[in-house]
Amino acid sequence: MSTYVEGSSMIKQRTGVGQFTKRLLEAYGKEYPEAHIKIFGFKFFTQGEPEYPIKSSSKLEYNINRWLPGRVYNQLFKYNIAPPIDLLLGARKSDVFLYPNFVQFPMLYNNKSMLMIHDLSFVHFSQFTHPKDLPYKLKYVPASVKKASRIITISENSKKEIMEYYGVEESRISLVHPAVDTKYFYRKPQKDIQRVRKKYCLPSKYILYAGTIEPRKNIDGLLNAYASLDKSIISIYGLVLAGGKGWQDDGILERIQKLKDSGFNIVQTGYVPDEDLPAIYSGATLFVFPSHYEGFGIPPLEAMACGVPVISANNSSLSEAVGDAGILVDASNTQQLGISIESLIRSGKRRKELVNKGYVQLKKFTWEKAARELNDAINLVR
Predict the structure, then answer these.
(1) Are 286 and 208 in contact (CB under 8 A)?
(2) Helix pair angle (348-362, 334-346), 10° resolution
(3) Which CATH class is domain 190-362?
(4) Whole-prediction pTM value?
(5) What is the pLDDT of residues 99-117, one digit of tens each?
């Protein structure tokens, strides 16, 4: 009996969904070493070997279809003529399928599938969803919800929204909370901080944001708050934006350039690989995450794990993730955000207090716990 996991979000440059899936499967494999996991995807034989996110083992293997390009399968899926994925992969009726990325493929035996819906930002904040992604999700997520035997989501807030919007009974939903691996995310020594500072040309002191550069993340609000800070603070503290390119970022990039031209010390790192991110967190004086909406909000927890005080928006699931271990602000209130940044920079005592609370908050969310939650969901499907 195997658990098949749709792995497209992992077998490429990983952002939120891919990172979550990778960490969850790693923890699941450690917690349940007897479990047989098959990560599946598409990679046409002329495209070379994919980059496998997790090391293969006797209990974890990859089932990559070489004869059918992923783009072709997706087009067939959109025209409702895609072959059943379980039949294509040679899966047995007893096997369970996990779809981590909102949409379920057609299956011949569809009574053993789990669908992950991380959030409903594409419903409630459609203006922040990529125009190519929006119609796809609006069309195929509802059908996937009906077909899946179980829905998995990552926060109480998302669970409530799924129940209300799709009319899903609470008994069909399982919670699998994200976490931070403190074996990787912890306060790094000065030599590591100096290494990434040199590599990414970071200021000696900086305020940090980590995440994709896109409108939903409220980068504009952060830029405006930073520009409003007292000149004595701006002269000492730069602003570091650590994250890959998103969409509809033209206006954001223009705003950044104007501030740079005016003398503001703003650094864009681009996409940061896993091995550098903890040191970038560790070098920050504080971390700011003013997003308009999140399914959970891992970056604030990563910052806490690295001993950095956090300021976060108070919407969606962020209050649940951050708790009382960070300063919560209204994402639409730039003045409040600026005041919070300034007051935290000026108070070493408050920063230390939040750092200590952050370490406590982290204990609520561990990958071992997430693995057990996933296992409970799998057992309910079987």
Answers:
(1) yes
(2) 100
(3) alpha beta
(4) 0.89
(5) 999 999 999 987 799 999 9
